[in-house]
């Protein structure tokens, strides 16, 4: 028996804000009127028709030009681009990576309900995995399996290279315009705005920033040992020190302003989800906002 969240998920429909490749029903719009591959009927030729579709045998018999009609392609291709760097494993409960996993699987199920195809790009600096787009429940199960499979952490001296992730996404999705969901904490080396803008130029990109509340406001818990999840660098800090707390607050404010400016330059209006957020409410909010920014 389906639970209440599952029933709600079945009723949700992602609405596109721009034209993509493939022909879809309902609110979906496309750039190209696909020819399809399945022949369905013949009709008289009109000046707007493509001459390549003329059936010359029928035309010769009837002494009047006729064109073939085909069943048009009716699928959307969506991609789940998931940042799996070390910083994504930070946070309450199972961390930001767990939230990104739940979001990716839920969005995958949401998109595939209409028979659409979903692929995935799972990325960190040392390793990436590309799962080609397919339809059906088995595809969602495969993506979920890859997302929950534990990985051996690798030492690194740099933070996440989101530029490389977006360039990989652009190369992988180059064949057709798609709906691209990006899930990341956007803790990264500078310079990711331009590759993201290039990805946004061709595709409809939905950026989902996943954070933990402790990243935005340092909890007052006394003397603690903190470690950089990306590089492994450790530091002993007194979280009760008002001067330290103010300096960190200033740095967080500057980082948030810089991140917001980068998103604007990339042409993206990001969604923000925290590890203590109600995931179902966040998903419903995303669906409600889908398509508004470009209509």
Summary keywords:
alpha/beta; Rossmann fold; six-stranded mixed sheet; elongated; two-stranded antiparallel ribbon; 295 residues
Short summary of the structure?
With 295 residues, the chain is of the alpha/beta class. The protein has helices at 4-11, 56-62, 96-112, 137-148, 162-172, 193-202, 213-216, 242-266, 279-289, and strands at 38-44, 66-71, 77-83, 117-124, 127-134, 179-184, 204-211, 223-227, 234-238, 271-274.
Structural features, described:
The protein is of the alpha/beta class. Among the domains are: 38-71, no CATH class; 77-211 and 269-294, von Willebrand factor, type A domain (Rossmann fold, 3-Layer(aba) Sandwich), CATH 3.40.50.410. It has helices at 4-11, 56-62, 96-112, 137-148, 162-172, 193-202, 213-216, 242-266, 279-289; strands at residues 38-44, 66-71, 77-83, 117-124, 127-134, 179-184, 204-211, 223-227, 234-238, 271-274. The strands form three sheets. The chain has a six-stranded mixed sheet, sandwiched between helices. Helix 5 runs parallel beside helix 6. It starts with a helix and ends in a 6-residue tail after the last helix.
